[in-house]
Fold this sequence. Notes:
This protein is of the alpha+beta class.
Amino acid sequence: MSLRQHLAKVIEGNEVKDLKGFAKWMLSWEGVKMLGDGNIGFIKLIKGPTAGTYVGQDHYGNKYYENNNLQYDRKRWVMYKDTFDYSSSTIPPEWHGWINYINDYTPHNHNFYKPHYMLPTEKTKTGTDGAYQPKGTWTTPKKRNWVKYSAWQPPQA
């Protein structure tokens, strides 16, 4: 693959319109942070769009790639839409099964059974303000009056 073809695939994979937009993106704060983190830079610039074939995209915007010529557990990978605030919880169950070799079916060529009680997937809220806060935690605005011990009183007859 020539350098021109590689750059064309990298530009296409990173959703930038042209080489000028790609250069502007690389010189932005996001591009500098990406180069500082070698793993993200490797996935976005080297391995991501050029080392494998594009398999599909989920409803979050994550892109999935596969290359069967690589070593066993490195054949499938994901390029997260949000480069720096990514979470593996944004991989939907049907793609999770494919990327972890549980099955060989992608949601594009297989209709997965969805139980009637299944909720739509969403990114985990752990560590954010939207996380579950039980009664009595220090982050809940409504405080409880905690009593360490209360003796049982038999009912009056």
